[in-house]
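Hi V.,

Quick status before I head out on leave. The structure for the redesign project is tokenized and pasted below; the design run finished overnight.
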């Protein structure tokens, strides 16, 4: 294509694309602008009589490339999003976490999200967040989406945008104007001491879920951590449990390994079932199923024990554990270390719930849970686990 004229702007070429085709009446201009950072070009067509507009657009686009306000690379939502998903898998993030990113990327793409540089992209994101739709594994249900869920989705969308910026596909944040929804800080759902005693009663030990609940209640572990505890993680003589990263099997949240106190009551429960190796929760399905199935099993156990679930989940045992420790005047810094919290502010957020347990734990030894009215441990109960197994 022959040039119409020198544009006079470095990196900008204006061509008359109709002249090459032999069309004598009128003109059709193509403006090409080179991005000096990526050495790629963008182009745009202008009709007859728009030569001034063509020059102006070329000058403004070249200025944006030169100052770093824009880039000539593609910023396709789905392409960038799936790259991020592969990075999350390479970083060994949990599969449910990765799948949620995949479903969100697909849901927003189905809504019409393509080029993240497009001026309509922020409005598509707002429409998606305000749509009141929540996606499951294989369907989209119209439900009332909570502020917490909306904020989580926004955070995941922001992670895709950050990846586009880090890979130089974007030079600006197109959704910077979309703010998080204010979340009402509700009291965390916890169990009271009477409910815990009913759930940990000796006549419940034959229930298949009893051991799982005991691990959750006495350690304060997250559900994934509790289901991946091994017998080798218990230091019987030191009376501690090690929560550690297991490469290729389970990755701890934020990779924080830690030690937890081994409660006397939990030690009694575990010694009766002790093995030298393997997972404490022996059923492989405990480690493979997702949070929803864990929640259903947890609530079924509560109902079998005559306890109303009241919306409580396996994570409610963690809330209860932390609140009871704080109510027993255990140092908040120590509780944060046991819980694996990154910030002490997270631990202090449980200070409201501790008032529920203040009276119940007032006569307990500091940091000990008396939920099964144990007699003092016998010498046989204090034997190292190797001796217990050898004599069994």
């Amino acid at each position: 294509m022959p040039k119409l004229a020198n544009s006079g702007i470095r990196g900008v070429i204006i061509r008359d694309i109709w002249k090459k085709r032999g069309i004598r009446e009128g003109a059709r201009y193509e403006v090409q602008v080179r991005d000096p950072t990526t050495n790629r070009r963008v182009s745009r067509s202008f009709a007859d009589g728009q030569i001034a507009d063509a020059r102006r657009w070329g000058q403004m686009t070249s200025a944006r490339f030169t100052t770093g306000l824009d880039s000539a690379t593609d910023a396709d939502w789905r392409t960038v999003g799936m790259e991020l998903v592969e990075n999350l898998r390479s970083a060994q993030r949990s599969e449910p976490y990765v799948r949620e990113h995949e479903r969100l990327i697909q849901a927003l793409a189905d809504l019409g999200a393509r080029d993240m540089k497009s001026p309509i992209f922020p409005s598509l994101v707002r429409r998606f967040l305000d749509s009141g739709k929540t996606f499951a594994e294989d369907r989209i249900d119209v439900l009332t989406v909570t502020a917490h869920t909306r904020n989580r989705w926004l955070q995941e969308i922001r992670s895709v945008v950050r990846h586009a910026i880090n890979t130089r596909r974007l030079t600006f944040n197109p959704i910077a104007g979309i703010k998080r929804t204010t979340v009402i800080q509700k009291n965390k759902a916890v169990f009271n001491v009477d409910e815990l005693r009913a759930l940990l009663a000796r006549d419940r030990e034959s229930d298949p879920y009893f051991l799982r609940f005991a691990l959750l209640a006495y350690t304060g572990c997250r559900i994934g951590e509790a289901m991946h505890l091994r017998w080798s993680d218990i230091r019987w003589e030191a009376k501690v449990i090690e929560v550690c990263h297991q490469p290729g099997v389970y990755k701890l949240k934020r990779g924080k390994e830690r030690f937890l106190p081994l409660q006397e009551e939990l030690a009694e429960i575990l010694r009766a079932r002790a093995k030298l190796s393997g997972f404490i929760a022996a059923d492989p399905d405990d480690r493979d199923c997702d949070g929803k199935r864990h929640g259903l099993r947890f609530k079924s156990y509560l109902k079998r024990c005559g306890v109303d679930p009241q919306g409580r989940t396996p994570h409610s045992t963690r809330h209860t554990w932390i609140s009871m420790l704080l109510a027993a005047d255990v140092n908040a810094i120590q509780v944060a270390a046991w819980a694996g919290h990154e910030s002490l502010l997270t631990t202090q957020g449980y200070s409201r719930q501790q008032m529920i347990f203040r009276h119940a734990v007032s006569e307990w030894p500091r940091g000990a849970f008396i939920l099964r009215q144990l007699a003092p441990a016998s010498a046989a109960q204090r034997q190292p686990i190797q001796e217990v197994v050898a004599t069994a």
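Above is the designed sequence. Residues 1-6, 137-142, 374-392 have pLDDT under 50 and may be disordered.

G. will cover questions while I'm gone.

Best,
W.
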